[in-house]
């Protein structure tokens, strides 16, 4: 509960009508989630305009509106007008929840790939050090073992503030969160008080939204620009990434670098990548330590270095860091092995960018005993430029590719596949087939696998749905793969 007058403090109000001395029970940007006593913030969006939903919002009990244009039919409802409601939302959200991010340490992880993995590694280390930690991102918002699914990797400011408030009220020390470029660009995190920021990497993605790679990078840089030059504030930057200097130069805060390169402050040497995990020597200016991760792949060594660099700078002891990192047994949908007693390997992974796919397939090549069969597609209503690039990478790095569908959304699945095939065809003698139905595609891969082959099912990882037109169809790569493996094992008995 908060008084409306206090809620709008910090906003540049153009005009108000109605009583400002009202108790507001909640702040909401979606009319479908309004409850009696709420403030409805009307946002003109990319698809629809929130101002068009004033009537249902008032019908559901909204007693105040924050608008940027005149609205009708609002008798008895207080209306506050500002220039930009999207920019106003995080301010109102922070006022409503009392800026909880100032009452704990807030760690933001950004980058094209590795955010979910790195937030989990950091969380494990912090928990090992005895701290109470909330974690939020693509998989869930999790606090004290309770998981809540969120609409986005980085949800709207109101949802973020609500979660952090709960963590603070229940004694949390940290919140570790993924920060997407969309969230940075759309101001979802504008009022959060980050203490440290981690940059994993920058490669092509989301060029449907950010028009150029420079725009995309600029969005990510926002997180680093706002850190301060004061004790406790620092940036953790991947020295192996070509953009690292831009991130270093953008932040006024202290910087710690990590990477495979000798120049990084926190680095890995003697790296060994194996099917079930990876080992490396963690080196930092004052010492070194041998580590054995349960996560396979070079890229996960990089993610572990990010977490270690953060934790060392945070003052956590190297032994605790080692235990915390080694404890992580796997992250749902990230290089997740599907085992049903078959004599070939099946891996489900969330690689959905060219860089992600290349990394996963190169790791697969390093550990595979025989052929690699790759099943993948590309998301509809998303960066079209990724499609031929991913097609080319799959053809180059696999022995056989099955091009299929991955959340076609409003697009024609076959048109997406055609874009991918353009890239596949660039590779001479590429061996591939097109099977638009993902279930059939997975079945085909499982049935053609021979002993010691490796089937990689990429793109959907932990997802439990397929988005087709306006439908959300239940679909889980891991479950579908299991069904086909079991069927095949039974048929030979
Ligand atoms: C580009 C983008 O991020 N758009 C998000 C944004 O949309 P928008 O503001 O344009 O909303 P809109 O759908 O046009 O609606 C306008 C307003 O009307 C409201 N409305 C709408 C319908 C209704 O009946 N009543 C109502 O009040 C909406 O709640 C909204 O406030 O705000 C909406 C409400 O929160 C989001 O659902 C929507 O996410 C879209 C669907 C989306 O797909 N976003 C993805 C790309 C995204 O954000 N991804 C990132 C990165 C992922 C990663 O790589 O890690 C993420 O953080 O998840
Ligand atoms: N450091 C990395 N560099 C390159 N690829 C990576 C890295 N870490 C993970 N990947 C690949 O990217 C996939 C997604 O990893 P993860 O979920 O950690 O990234 P994310 O940044 O959270 O993704 P999203 O943007 O969808 O939330 C993994 O399944 C793996 O294939
Ligand atoms: N965070 C990414 C996830 C993509 C996952 C892939 N399965 C797809 O749907 O394209 C996005 O929203 O673009
Ligand atoms: Mg993620």
From TrEMBL:
GO cellular component, one term: cytoplasm
Positions annotated to bind meso-2,6-diaminopimelate: 382, 406-409, 459, 463
E.C. numbers: 6.3.2.13
Substrates-to-products reaction catalysed: UDP-N-acetyl-alpha-D-muramoyl-L-alanyl-D-glutamate + meso-2,6-diaminopimelate + ATP = UDP-N-acetyl-alpha-D-muramoyl-L-alanyl-gamma-D-glutamyl-meso-2,6-diaminopimelate + ADP + phosphate + H(+)
Keywords, alphabetical: ATP-binding, Cell cycle, Cell division, Cell shape, Cell wall biogenesis/degradation, Cytoplasm, Ligase, Magnesium, Nucleotide-binding, Peptidoglycan synthesis
Main location (coarse class): cytoplasm
SUPFAM superfamilies xref list: MurD-like peptide ligases, catalytic domain (SSF53623), MurD-like peptide ligases, peptide-binding domain (SSF53244), MurE/MurF N-terminal domain (SSF63418)
Cell location: Cytoplasm
Domain Mur ligase N-terminal catalytic, first and last residues per copy: 23-97
A molecular function GO annotation: UDP-N-acetylmuramoylalanyl-D-glutamate-2,6-diaminopimelate ligase activity
Binding site for UDP-N-acetyl-alpha-D-muramoyl-L-alanyl-D-glutamate: 31, 153-154, 180, 188
NCBIfam families: murE, PRK00139.1-2, PRK00139.1-4
Role according to the record: Catalyzes the addition of meso-diaminopimelic acid to the nucleotide precursor UDP-N-acetylmuramoyl-L-alanyl-D-glutamate (UMAG) in the biosynthesis of bacterial cell-wall peptidoglycan.
Protein family membership: Belongs to the MurCDEF family. MurE subfamily.
Protein name per Swiss-Prot or TrEMBL: UDP-N-acetylmuramoyl-L-alanyl-D-glutamate--2,6-diaminopimelate ligase
Record organism: Syntrophothermus lipocalidus (strain DSM 12680 / TGB-C1)
Encoding gene (name): murE
């Amino acid at each position: 509960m908060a008084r409306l007058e206090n809620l709008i403090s910090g906003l540049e109000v153009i005009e108000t009508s109605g009583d400002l001395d009202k108790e507001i029970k909640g702040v909401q940007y979606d009319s479908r989630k309004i409850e009696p006593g709420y403030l409805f913030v009307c946002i003109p969006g990319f698809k629809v305009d929130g101002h068009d939903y004033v009537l249902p919002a008032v019908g559901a009990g909204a007693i105040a509106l924050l608008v940027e244009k005149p609205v009708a039919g609002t008798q008895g409802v207080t209306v506050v007008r500002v220039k930009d409601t999207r920019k106003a939302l995080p301010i109102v959200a922070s006022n409503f929840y009392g800026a909880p991010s100032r009452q704990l340490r807030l760690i933001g992880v950004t980058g094209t790939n590795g955010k979910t993995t790195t937030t989990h590694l950091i969380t494990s280390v912090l928990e090992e050090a005895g701290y109470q930690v909330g974690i939020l991102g693509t998989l869930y918002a999790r606090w004290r073992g309770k998981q809540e699914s969120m609409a986005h990797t980085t949800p709207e400011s109101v949802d973020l503030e609500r979660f952090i408030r709960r963590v603070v009220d229940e004694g949390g020390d940290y919140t570790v969160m993924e920060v997407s470029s969309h969230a940075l660009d759309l101001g979802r995190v504008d009022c959060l008080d980050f203490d440290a920021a981690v940059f994993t990497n920058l490669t092509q993605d989301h060029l449907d939204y950010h028009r150029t790679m420079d725009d995309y990078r600029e969005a990510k840089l926002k997180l680093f620009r706002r850190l301060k030059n004061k004790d406790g504030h620092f940036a953790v930057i991947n020295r192996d990434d070509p953009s690292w200097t831009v991130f270093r130069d953008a932040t006024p805060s202290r910087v710690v670098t990590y990477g495979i390169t000798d120049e990084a402050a926190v680095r890995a040497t003697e790296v060994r990548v194996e099917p079930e995990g990876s080992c490396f020597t963690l080196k930092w200016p004052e010492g070194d330590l041998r580590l054995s991760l349960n996560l396979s792949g070079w890229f996960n060594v990089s993610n572990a270095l990010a977490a270690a660099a953060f934790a060392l700078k945070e003052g956590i002891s190297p032994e605790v860091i080692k235990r915390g990192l080694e404890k992580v047994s796997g992250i749902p949908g990230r290089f997740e092995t599907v085992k049903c007693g078959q004599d070939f390997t099946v891996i489900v992974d969330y690689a959905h960018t060219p860089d992600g796919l290349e990394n996963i397939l190169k790791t697969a090549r390093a550990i595979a005993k025989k052929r690699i069969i790759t099943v993948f597609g590309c998301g509809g209503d998303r960066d079209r430029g990724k499609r031929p690039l991913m097609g080319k990478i799959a053809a180059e790095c696999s022995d056989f590719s099955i091009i299929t569908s991955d959340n076609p959304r409003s697009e024609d699945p076959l048109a997406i596949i055609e874009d991918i095939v353009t890239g596949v065809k660039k590779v001479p003698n590429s061996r591939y087939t097109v099977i638009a139905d993902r279930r059939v595609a997975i079945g085909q891969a499982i049935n053609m696998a021979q002993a010691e082959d490796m089937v990689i099912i990429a793109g959907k990882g932990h997802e439990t749905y397929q988005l087709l037109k306006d439908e959300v169809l239940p679909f889980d790569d891991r479950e579908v793969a299991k069904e086909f493996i079991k069927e095949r094992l039974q048929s030979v008995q």
